[in-house]
Write a structure and sequence with these properties.
By secondary structure, the chain is an alpha+beta fold. The chain has helices at about 5-10, 55-70, 95-105, 125-130, 135-145; strands at about 20, 25-35, 40-50, 75-80, 110-115, 120-125. Strands 1, 2, 3, 4, 5 and 6 form a six-stranded mixed sheet that branches.
């Protein structure tokens, strides 16, 4: 079993759409990521009627990584609803998640994101966020060091 299959399996374990309360819905989008040191972290989407609490699976997995290990760099990421990515834009993180992942570490621009499990097709976060506004801030921070 290769790393993408392992990540998909770990994410799939989180998939169990649940109405937590009449106001909160969870586990309908899942994610697994491989951190820089090879650990795997998972997350699931949780949404509420008010919208204030909504968190995507990708951000939850990244937060789990940071809270559990202090790591901020992600090597690989997979996210999906009821089945692993199958091409055609499936498995792509939303704009808010792309932004958070870029802000978590500049090195995350090189993370691989699974687009199609069967063909092992991936894209990098850099490809999904061309001309990202935050590079200037990372450069300014390096100059202060």
């Amino acid at each position: 079993m290769d790393i993408w299959e392992i990540l998909c399996q770990k994410a799939q374990e989180q998939y169990r759409p649940t109405e937590v309360t009449p106001f909160v819905y969870a586990h309908h989008v899942v994610c697994a990521l491989e951190s820089e040191n090879g650990q795997i972290f998972t997350g699931f989407c949780i949404e509420s009627c008010g919208g204030v609490m909504n968190l995507c699976a990708e951000r939850v997995a990244a937060l789990n990584m940071y809270l559990s290990s202090g790591q901020t760099v992600i090597k690989r990421l997979v996210s999906f609803r009821d089945r692993p990515p199958f091409g055609g834009g499936s498995g792509m993180p939303c704009g808010a998640c792309r932004e958070f992942l870029m802000q978590l570490s500049e090195r995350n621009q090189d993370m691989e994101i699974l687009v199609d499990l069967e063909n092992h097709q991936t894209v990098t976060l850099r490809e999904l966020t061309p001309n990202w506004w935050g590079y200037e801030r990372y450069e300014a921070a390096k100059e202060k060091e």
